[in-house]
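Hey team,

Filing this mostly as a record. A colleague (T.K.) asked me to run one chain through the structure pipeline before their review meeting, and I want the input and output archived in the tracker in case anyone asks later how it was produced. No errors, nothing strange. Just documentation.

Input sequence:
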Amino acid sequence: QVQLVESGGGLVQAGGSLRLSCAASGRTFSRCAAGWFRQAPGKEREFVVAINWSDTSTYYADSVKGRFTISRDNAKNTVYLQMNSLKPEDTAVYYCAATSPYYTGSRYASWRAYDYWGQGTQVTVSS
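Output structure:
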């Protein structure tokens, strides 16, 4: 079982930066792929970025490429999302998610690939 807790959200001006953290409990987290999704009011949850369990590949939505960076520190059981050059359209609740161990599929952008979810953290970007 993996439990996820996000932190680091807040209010920032356009062009600013935030770093989100996702702290995981459970000894298997280092063998799980992890991703970030977001959901804005009135919109469906959308994929943002993911990292595979072996920390060798990352996957980004086109809307955040070049601005967001995902990383993981397995010694700390934590995944990070560094968000730079934030835009008002990045405003959403950001959710951390993890797959089951040793996920080898290719559907990182699909919420169906993930078995564990955090409660979300609000990110608001003002113009």
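Quick notes for T.K.: The chain has no helices and eleven strands. The mean pLDDT is 96.
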